[in-house]
């Protein structure tokens, strides 16, 4: 695969996470590779799993000489929420970040957020 044909790391991580979510059971790196139709080398899958583990996105447990991996987040929405919290945690001006985020929301998204904060029982 040439450098130009490489997929971004986020896309590869998303594919690996999707395979783990779909499986619903812990998988080894070769099992994840198989679920991805062998589209990636086993070493690439193992590297992606190790990076996801370092980020806390997947959990792993020893199974003989290998690890079995499970997603540490339940779905795509939880993963996105975790990323958003991470960005907010890194910001020196949390209020400013939140203000700019809210200012960029569509009318529908702002309405959904308002409903979650008022009717959804979330603490504001």
Automatic annotation (TrEMBL):
Q: GO annotations under biological process? A: negative regulation of DNA-templated transcription
> Which InterPro entries does the entry link to?
BlaI_family, WH-like_DNA-bd_sf, WH_DNA-bd_sf
Highest taxon above the source species: Bacteria
Parts forming coiled coils = none
Q: Which GO terms describe its molecular function?
A: DNA binding
Q: Which UniProt keywords apply?
A: DNA-binding, Transcription, Transcription regulation
Question: Any keyword Cell cycle?
Answer: no
Question: Gene3D superfamilies under this entry?
Answer: Winged helix-like DNA-binding domain superfamily/Winged helix DNA-binding domain
Q: Name the residues that span the membrane.
A: none
UniProt key word Nucleotidyltransferase: no
Q: Which family does it belong to?
A: Belongs to the BlaI transcriptional regulatory family.
Q: What is this protein called?
A: BlaI/MecI/CopY family transcriptional regulator
The uppermost taxa in this organism's lineage are: Bacteria, Bacillati, Actinomycetota, Actinomycetes, Kitasatosporales
């Amino acid at each position: 695969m040439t450098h130009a044909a490489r997929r971004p790391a986020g896309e590869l991580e998303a594919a690996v996470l999707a395979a783990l979510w779909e499986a619903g059971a812990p998988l080894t790196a070769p099992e994840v590779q198989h679920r991805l139709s062998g589209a990636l080398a086993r070493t690439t899958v193992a590297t992606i799993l190790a990076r996801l583990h370092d980020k806390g996105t997947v959990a792993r447990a020893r199974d003989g000489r290998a690890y079995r991996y499970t997603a540490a987040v339940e779905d795509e929405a939880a993963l996105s929420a975790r990323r958003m919290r991470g960005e907010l945690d890194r910001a020196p001006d949390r209020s400013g970040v939140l203000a700019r985020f809210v200012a960029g929301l569509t009318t529908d998204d702002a309405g959904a957020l308002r409903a979650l904060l008022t009717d959804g029982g979330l603490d504001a």
